[in-house]
Inverse folding.
């Protein structure tokens, strides 16, 4: 392309000569999204437009080059060594888009990498989840090698620059028109290799250790809740921060109780005579047994409420604030009756006239209305 055919760089980006850095960047992002080769495979026109926009931005984003271009046009750029001014386009593109199109810049030498987060499942009993508990757990995680203090080399030795990346910590991989910076696979971004590795960690700089940790489970936690312990994950590299530990709560099933939010639910069996005549029964709770009155005429499935016998409210700041316990009565019908018991029940049925009982009467009335 000769000098006369070259488009004005401001026209390429669709901006005015008074545009500031923010406007330049916004326009370039839009054009790069639209014409990126990964989004237009095999489209040579789109590739050329992407290249043209990238070159335009590489000039106008540089104050010195922009001033030269504003004064002399394309000739001013050529006078600075020809129009091979795209060397920094990849860095500009990467700094604006990061790994938007699947590339991603490498971690440069000297930049630490944060350690990995860890997850631990802590099994607690129903009562421990309700009232809180403190437990000791053991976490396997990576720590800096104590023998070499995390250097990876024997005492008295020094690492050497990585031959693959020449000590930069990253390599560039060509993808179509542009190149993507990636972490060096040989040194994992450190820019250094170890010629004489530590005998303890074999040059890995870290070792697996078992860390003892005290975990305070607050009252009222529920199944699947996570407790975060900042900085208790795996150690980072090259001064990078430590990851976090997430303790996930798993609650063992209880033989008597189930839970619904802050309510405790308990199903209690009662006999026919207790339901009919009423009775005082003992009901289990998280605090021990309590007496509860069953009124005469109690129906199967009736639910009674015991105030503040449920789960403490989580993070409410009120130690006595608790949910309720719901007691659902289950009518237990005897399976084996003596002859005398049968005779008494038959006599009871004859005298009570069961067809006149409210529930029976209402049910059979509806049957008659539907089926005639």
């Amino acid at each position: 392309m000769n000098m006369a055919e070259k488009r004005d760089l401001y026209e390429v980006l669709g901006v005015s000569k008074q545009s500031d850095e923010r406007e330049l960047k916004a326009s370039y992002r839009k054009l790069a999204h639209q014409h990126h080769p990964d989004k237009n495979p095999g489209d040579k026109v789109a590739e050329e437009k992407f290249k043209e926009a990238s070159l335009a931005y590489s000039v106008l984003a540089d104050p010195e080059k922009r001033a030269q271009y504003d004064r002399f046009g394309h000739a001013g750029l050529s006078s600075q060594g020809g129009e091979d001014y795209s060397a920094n386009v990849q860095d500009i593109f990467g700094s604006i888009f990061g790994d938007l199109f699947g590339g991603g810049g490498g971690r440069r030498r000297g930049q630490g990498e944060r350690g990995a987060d860890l997850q631990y499942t802590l099994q607690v009993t129903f009562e421990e989840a309700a009232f809180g508990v403190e437990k000791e757990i053991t976490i396997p995680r990576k720590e800096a090698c104590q023998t070499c203090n995390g250097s990876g080399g024997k005492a008295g030795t020094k690492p050497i620059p990585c031959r693959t990346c020449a000590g930069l910590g990253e390599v560039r991989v060509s993808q179509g028109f542009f190149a993507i910076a990636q972490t060096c696979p040989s040194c994992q971004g450190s820019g250094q290799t170890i010629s004489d590795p530590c005998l303890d960690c074999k040059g890995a700089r870290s070792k697996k250790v078992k860390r003892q940790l005290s975990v305070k489970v607050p009252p009222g936690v529920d199944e699947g809740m996570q407790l975060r312990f900042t900085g208790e994950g795996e150690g980072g590299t090259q001064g990078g921060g430590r990851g976090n530990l997430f303790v996930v709560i798993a609650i063992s099933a209880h033989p008597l109780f189930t839970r619904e939010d802050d309510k405790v639910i308990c199903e209690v069996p009662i006999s026919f005579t207790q339901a009919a005549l009423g009775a005082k029964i003992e009901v289990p709770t998280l605090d021990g047994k309590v007496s509860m009155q069953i009124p005469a005429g109690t129906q199967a499935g009736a639910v009674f409420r015991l105030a503040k016998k449920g789960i403490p409210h989580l993070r409410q700041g009120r130690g006595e604030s608790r949910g309720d316990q719901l007691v659902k009565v289950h009518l237990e019908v005897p399976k084996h009756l003596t002859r005398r018991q049968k005779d008494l029940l038959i006599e009871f049925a004859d005298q009570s006239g069961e067809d006149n009982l409210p529930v029976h009467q209402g049910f059979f009335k509806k049957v008659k209305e539907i089926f005639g």
Observations:
- The chain has ten helices and 15 strands.
- Residues 10 and 35 are 17 Å apart (CA to CA).
- The mean pLDDT is 79.
